């Protein structure tokens, strides 16, 4: 484990991978950071409903009242300056892997600050799977539900500063060992690798649109094919070189884990064979 864990939370314009951060907060002990950030786009109605934040006429408002907000690059740099004396750090958030960490990295990359972020942050800890393991029978693992049931408290959920302060209190109550926390961690580099892997997969999936449009492949399966590293041309050339047998072998060959590279599903394989047969196996 690094010298220090820092709790952080984001409020954003939406759920998309490329959404803007509109509030960034962190806490470690009694020290805290809280900054509103001007987005480049409107806050989605759903995000606004949850956070109370709106962006109109160049100003950010919280429940209709204007808040002081910085331009994105300035705000992101300000946060780096705040964590620098604490570094190296591990960042802790609830649902960190699927949401906060990816959007934090995406925004730092967008404004040319990713290298500096990587110099200060060594990894992340996700408290969502941690609490699922600690309390396997709970009906909900939303942070406000955990705080209510475990701490017997309420707080202003979806205000990122209140969120990080409550999360720190929630985790500290359990006095977990470094070994236990490490179980729910992932490195900074592994996150970068996964983001790049997902990006490449989406680019590859784009090449498969003709298969989706013709109903020979679902969009979900196209993404799976893309993430495996295969493109439309790869599949077409496999069919041209070895017919149905080679096409199926490429899609179903086992990985190191023993799972197929894409699928062994006969229906999927037959539809792909049909598609390439119909275009007379001519590469384009």
What does the model show?
The protein has 284 residues and is α/β, with parallel strands linked by helices. It folds into two domains: 4-187, Nucleotidyltransferase, domain 5, CATH 3.30.420.10; 207-278. It has helices at residues 45-51, 72-83, 96-110, 114-120, 127-134, 143-151, 160-174, 178-182, 188-206, 209-213, 219-227, 232-252, 266-278; strands at residues 4-12, 21-28, 31-37, 53-56, 59-62, 65-66, 69-70, 89-93, 121-126, 185-187.
Briefly characterize the structure.
By secondary structure, the chain is an alpha/beta fold. It is built from 13 helices and 10 strands.
Outline the fold blueprint:
Layout: E1 4-12, E2 21-28, E3 31-37, H1 45-51, E4 53-56, E5 59-62, E6 65-66, E7 69-70, H2 72-83, E8 89-93, H3 96-110, H4 114-120, E9 121-126, H5 127-134, H6 143-151, H7 160-174, H8 178-182, E10 185-187, H9 188-206, H10 209-213, H11 219-227, H12 232-252, H13 266-278
Helix pairs in contact: 6-7, 9-11
């Amino acid at each position: 484990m690094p010298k220090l864990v820092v709790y952080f939370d984001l409020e954003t314009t939406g759920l998309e991978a490329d959404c803007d951060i509109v509030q960034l907060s962190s806490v470690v002990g009694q020290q805290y950071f809280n900054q509103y950030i001007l987005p480049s786009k409107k806050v989605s109605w759903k995000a606004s409903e949850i956070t109370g934040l709106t962006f109109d006429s160049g100003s950010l408002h919280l429940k209709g009242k204007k808040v002081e907000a910085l331009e994105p690059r300035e705000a992101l740099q300000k946060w780096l300056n705040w964590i620098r004396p604490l570094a190296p750090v591990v960042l802790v958030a609830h649902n960190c892997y699927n949401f906060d960490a990816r959007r934090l990295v995406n925004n730092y990359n967008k404004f040319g600050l990713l290298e500096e972020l990587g110099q200060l942050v060594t990894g992340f800890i996700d408290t969502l799977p941690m609490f699922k393991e600690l309390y396997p029978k709970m009906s909900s693992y939303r942070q406000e539900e955990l705080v209510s049931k475990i701490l017997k408290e309420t707080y202003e959920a979806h205000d990122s500063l209140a969120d990080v302060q409550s999360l720190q209190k929630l985790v500290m109550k359990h006095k977990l060992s470094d070994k236990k926390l490490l179980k729910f961690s992932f490195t900074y580099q592994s996150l970068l690798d996964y983001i790049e892997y997902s990006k490449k997969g989406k680019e590859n999936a784009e090449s498969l649109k003709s298969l989706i449009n013709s109903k020979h492949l679902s969009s979900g399966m196209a993404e799976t094919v893309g993430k495996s590293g295969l493109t439309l041309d790869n599949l077409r050339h496999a069919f041209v070189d070895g017919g149905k047998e080679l096409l199926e072998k490429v899609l179903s060959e086992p990985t190191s884990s023993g799972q197929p590279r894409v699928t062994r599903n006969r229906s999927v394989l037959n539809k792909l064979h049909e598609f390439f047969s119909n275009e007379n196996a001519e590469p384009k």
